[in-house]
Amino acid sequence: MIRTEQENSMLADLLFEDVVESREDIFKKYPRRKLEKEQLVLRFAPSPTGYLHIGNVYTALAGYILTKNSNGVFILRIEDTDKEREIEEGIVQIVDGLKYFGIEFDEGVLGKGKTEGIYGPYIQSERVEIYRVFAKDLVSKGLAYPCFATEQELEEIRKQQEKKRERTGYYGKWAKWRDASLDSIEKELEKETPYVIRLYSRGDFKKKIECTDLIKGRVTLSQNDMDSILLKSDGYPTYHFAHPIDDTLMDISYVLRGDEWLSSQPLHMEIFEALEFKQLDYGHISPLMKKEGEGKRKLSKRRDPESRVAFYIENGYPVEGVKEYLLNVANSSFSDWRRLNPDSDILEFNLRLEKFNKAGALFDILKINNICKEYISTLSAQQVYNYALEWSEKYSEQTFSKLSNHREYCINILNIEREGERIRKDIVKWSDVLTQLEIFFDDLFINMKKDVVEMEDNLQRAILNMFLDTYYFEDSSSEWFNKIKEIALRNNFSTDSTEYIKDPSKYRGRIGDVAMVIRVATTGRRQTPDLYQVMQVMGEVRVRERLQGYINDVLM
User: In degrees to the nearest 10, what's the CA dihedral of 157, 158, 159, 161?
Assistant: First the structure.
């Protein structure tokens, strides 16, 4: 039987006897914003149910740039109504992670116990009384109802549906509490049977609805006919019920969210209609993908460490480099814009939603590394030092100790090949700085894994002794190199590549092989920045000690 209007009104009072405010009272507390039409109000609304995903930064960055470009308002709202999955300090992780990437909010949750704005609370669990007002209103209009079905009963319904090869879910004839009498409901309430509040859907799954997605364009979906849960048995709302209310009261312009929510849009549209709210536009952002074999899959929280924002923070990836990569993923035109505007702030880029990848962009950590490498190569030694010092204070005690106690020496180290035509590009992230410092500090060098030179010991010894005999710290780069050429000639190594290629058998090797012996003896590595500059920064005493130590300890 279908309940009468009077019965629905009585039922609403019975279920929400403590709710005295009306929907009109709520709207008076949340006035429309006095903004120009072009000024966007967007929100980023994560759940504190796990670590912050790089996809969260991707979505938040888009909202941040769009609102800044329009002189609008960007809000951080926390959707924490899934209390069973909520993790400790989850909100702090979200706020700190976004802050690390320079994503700033004008309103909402700005830190632990800190909020800003008149449209709060900005944490959903603190807005429960607001949701109850609207839930009561829906029940009074016959648009929602209490459902006392147990988990066992729902499981039995699912089994019957599967047996009959029907769609699974709580809808239509399967929703036994949908049209329950007021008497039967009162009996369950008297027994204090747990219940949820469900939507009384009026949709027809066989009918289609069309909508325009801000990213995907025209989308055709089936109407919703599921009596979805609006309020859970613990009193907290579902995302489906909370976000239409919050987005409407906060005067949100449109919603950007992951495309896993696209299939729920018909449900959300029906809830907006039931609440008599203006429909919102949505832009569904495709997930970041990872190449696997011949195909691709979603970037996984469980399988891919680079999916975690903490991965970038703990390893010291430069924020600007990661953001540049994400914007290139969002709009492929960003790379062309950056080439034409090398010194411009990313906020000057005209981000376009319709240009987002509709099928899911491939996420490539190697490309991030390359972009970060390029970005760091544009910085001065002083800037690299400052960034690395700031990062290492929290994440690398060893790096911080060297940087803070040997400031000038470290800046000189970082300045090697940082000026001129061939700028060094060997630092991807701030954690790489320690690798650069290793060869310059004896206590780090002694424990460092050393490279090996494939050359007989006696010949290496002869080369190094000759170099020690002629080494003069005040030599210019050309004078220094000419001495190495002389050593090469005296030991029958070619100093002319063309001549060597004509007849390699005439020589023991090339001049590069001679330089390699000196390089490995001095630094322990086959690949280093410019060796002359390295020696100039090390100083004569350390260079001579390294070469003599190699002769005494490595060569037999």
Answer: 90
pLDDT, average across residues 224-249: 97
- Residue 215 in contact with residue 63, Cβ under 8 Å? no
Amino acid at 366: L
Q: Which residues pair with 109 in a beta bridge?
A: 115
Q: State how far Cα 245 lies from the chain centre.
A: 27
Phi, psi torsion values for 72, nearest 5 degrees: -100, -150
C-alpha separations of 220 from 265, 354, 446 in Å: 11, 17, 66
According to the annotation, is 191 in a ligand binding site?
Answer: no
Residue 361 clears pLDDT 90, i.e. is over it: no
Domains of the chain, CATH where assigned: 5-26+127-285 (3.40.50.620), 296-377 (1.10.1160.10), 381-438 (no CATH), 457-553 (1.10.10.350)
pLDDT score at 112: 80
The dihedrals phi and psi of 330, each to the nearest 5 degrees, come to -65, -50
Given CA atoms 302, 308, 312, 315 in this order, what sign does their dihedral have? negative
Alpha-carbon distance of 540 to 552, in angstroms, equals 18
Q: How far apart are CA 83 and CA 343, in angstroms?
A: 45
As a three-state string, the secondary structure of 463-492 is HHHHHHHHCCCCCCHHHHHHHHHHHHHHCC
| Cβ contact 247:255 at 8 Å | yes
Closest CA to 90 of 124, 47, 45: 47
Question: 265-274 and 239-249 are packed helices; what angle lies between their axes, rounded to 10 degrees?
Answer: 60
pLDDT of residue 62: 97
> What is the pTM (predicted TM-score) of this model?
0.89
pLDDT interval class at 536 (50, 70, 90): very high
Q: Which residue has the tokens 């909508």?
A: 211
